[in-house]
Specification:
By secondary structure, the chain is of the alpha+beta class. It is built from four helices and nine strands, in the order H-H-H-E-E-E-E-E-E-E-E-E-H.
């Protein structure tokens, strides 16, 4: 009897766990037209791209740029860093689908992040819902650096979240 009850509990629990990672319908049906006025334009993103996240500190600019539509096989996302008048980093180097390149996390607190690794360096673009954003960089040696940014909260916008989900980079997707 106990064995059957545990098996039944396991069968019932699986769909509930799967639903925890899927976004609500207000995210999956969000459109560019609904949210376009919420995005600021970065100088690192072209006019026909969306600036999903940006940080400006002194003479440095960091941005996550995207095509207007992104799926698992079409569209692209690119992280770009501009340092003292020069483009210092474009990741990935080629415009491509972000699947397998970026990981998006949405936290219960409303915070969100995008993570990626390039040449052994781990990057986390952190977007606090209430507070300032930041970039966390972990070098191959383990040394950690935090770059403080202002608040921009664009990773939490429903359209940004839809792009992350549609592209397959939403954690648990």
């Amino acid at each position: 009897m106990m064995k059957n009850a545990l098996a039944l509990l396991a069968v019932i629990s699986v769909p509930v766990l799967a639903q925890d990672h899927a976004p609500v319908s207000s995210i999956t049906t969000a459109t560019w037209a609904q949210y376009k006025d919420e995005y600021q334009q970065s100088p690192l993103c072209a006019k026909d791209e969306i600036t999903l996240w940006t940080c400006e500190t002194g003479k440095r600019v960091y941005s996550l740029c995207s095509s207007h539509e992104v799926t698992r096989t079409t569209g692209y996302m690119q992280y770009r860093a501009f340092d003292h008048g020069k483009l210092a980093l474009t990741y990935p180097a080629e415009k491509r689908s972000p699947l397998g390149v970026f990981v998006y996390n949405s936290y219960g607190s409303g915070d969100a992040s995008v993570e990626f690794t390039n040449n052994g360096y781990g990057y986390t673009l952190f977007d606090a819902l209430r507070g300032d954003s930041s970039i966390h960089v972990v070098a191959p040696s383990g040394k950690q650096t935090e770059i403080k940014c202002g608040g921009n909260q664009t990773l939490q916008l429903n359209y940004s979240m839809r792009l992350m989900y549609d592209s397959g980079v939403w954690a648990g997707n």
